[in-house]
Specification:
Shape: globular
Order of helices and strands: HHHEEHHEEEEEHE
Strand content: 25-35%
Radius of gyration: 17 Å
Number of strands: 8
Helix content: 25-40%
Number of helices: 6
Largest sheet: 6 strands, antiparallel
Length: 154
């Protein structure tokens, strides 16, 4: 049965796309939980894009510009351009009921509603960091625990 199990595992691997496997590893979830491939393909395309205040392209983007592009291309929704306007338009949800695609709002260095990202899964979110560009971060890191303001639905 060892060879039967090996074949079964091999078959399971084949049924997952490279995007599912890659982001399951990053998020610490099963590839089966990566169901919105258009979201993760979008992230893959933008990953590592440098931060540029006011930017809206893969040559440079700011946090609200990134979230704006993501919502436009993945969810086919037009949303406000600034973090404050996005925060104002969103309906608050509790941290423990966040779902993939919800926005996460932060108060960085005491500035209310100064940073925005999009929640993914398992405590992770994608955003345009001013120091590292477009990356996936963990909400449970001390920096983001302290800066977290709220989550919301658009």
């Amino acid at each position: 049965t060892a060879s039967k199990n090996a074949k079964s595992n091999e078959k399971n691997k084949e049924s997952h796309s490279p995007i599912q496997i890659k982001y399951a590893g990053i998020l610490g979830v099963s590839p089966n939980q990566i169901t919105n491939e258009s979201l993760y393909k979008f992230i893959d395309h933008w990953y590592g894009t440098p931060y540029k205040y006011g930017g809206l392209s893969t040559s440079g983007v700011d946090c609200s510009g990134f979230v704006n592009s993501l919502y436009n291309q993945v969810y086919h929704m037009s949303i406000p351009r600034t973090t404050k306007e996005i925060a104002d338009k969103s309906k608050s949800v509790s941290k423990n009921s966040m779902e993939e695609g919800d926005i996460v709002i932060f108060d960085i260095e005491g500035k209310k509603h100064s940073h925005v990202g999009v929640y993914l899964q398992n405590g992770h979110f994608v955003h345009a960091s001013s120091s590292k560009g477009v990356i996936i971060s963990n909400l449970n890191s001390p920096y983001y625990i302290n800066a977290f303001n709220r989550a919301g639905k658009l």
